[in-house]
Amino acid sequence: MVAALIGLRVVVVAALLLASDAAPIDDPIVRRTEIVATSPATPYRDFPVAAMPLETVMMRVIGGDGVGATSARLAVLAFVADLAIAAAMWWGFGRRPAVVYLVLGLPLLGFIYQRFDLVSVALAVAGVAALRRRGDGASGGVSLGLAALAKLWPIALIPTIVFVRGRRALAGLVATVALGGGAWYVTAGPRAPEQVLGARGAVGWSVHGTVGSVLALAGAQPVTAGTSVRVGFASTAQLAVLFLSMVALVATIWIRAARTRDEPSGGAALTAVAALLVFAPLLAPHYTSWLLPWAAMAYEGDQTERRCATLATLALVSTGLIGLAPSTEAPNLVMQALIVARNAVLIAIVAVWLRGSRAGRSESADAMAAAG
Fold this sequence. Notes:
With 372 residues, this protein is mainly alpha-helical. It has helices spanning 2-22, 28-38, 53-62, 67-93, 95-104, 117-134, 138-150, 160-163, 167-188, 192-197, 210-217, 236-260, 266-279, 292-298, 303-322, 333-371, and strands spanning 205-206, 223-225, 228-231. It folds into two domains: 1-198, no CATH class; 202-364, no CATH class. Helices cover 69% and strands 2% of the residues. A three-stranded antiparallel β-sheet has the order 1-3-2, with helices on one face. Strand 2 and strand 3 form a beta hairpin. The chain is globular, with a radius of gyration of 20 Å. The chain starts with a helix and ends with a helix.
């Protein structure tokens, strides 16, 4: 089964390699990568880049020889990262979660190998796996720090260090982020973080996000902004409320997980990442790849976690269909309805886990009272 799952991925990579030579490449991410790689100007300082520094470095490394070559190299990079995730899960959590991960990733193969997201997922999974296998080691923190420098979302996983009381892991994380962030600030300038958080100055809500999808389905006029389609206008106050709500919710998730578990939990990680997606003003189909390893781990958990994993599977399958549409075009009515439904599933993941964790705490308290 593992050989078959890997074989399917080899077929996808081979098709992308053939397409990179035979057909014009119009993927916006690939074209943006080539622009960043070939520009003589300095990224962030001379032109805006909405990517974290490690992703920008990867763009500069794999690009520069034409859009076709960039597409081929990105496909190989994502493929290697995909297999690295499965290997890290096998090493850190066992054979079955690794195989489940390979199964859950099938719906996303139509587009995920032309994105950088799997690299950040691989670094994050390697970090969490190292924490689980080695306890308080610096390598887990360093890997999580590199993941955060590639994409912002792994910040939601940093509380896993608490489960192992990881002083050295925390030191490795802080040192990695400080060194990488310091180098980024020196080379890119003080406005670089603002470009990442502000998506190069784009305004409005993504038609794939929780708010934007409802507005688009209600008839709001979509506008293409860079590599995304947006509707309406997102004010600073609204974005601040979303951000604070997201921080409060993620904190609540990990506080509850710490009270009921003694090691990193697939269900808690899955719920924390789902919460990020729910509150994100920008949500693209490839962002759901962040759910993959934690959903596979959650299938090994209790009934609540398995329910969350089943919901995540539904979200991944629907995203596979959503990702078939061009990312720079406004979705049609049917596709927009599917996006709203997918986002409702993400909300359901958070709600089901929170409800289950509350019930679990109540049962645990009752059992302790009865024992006393």
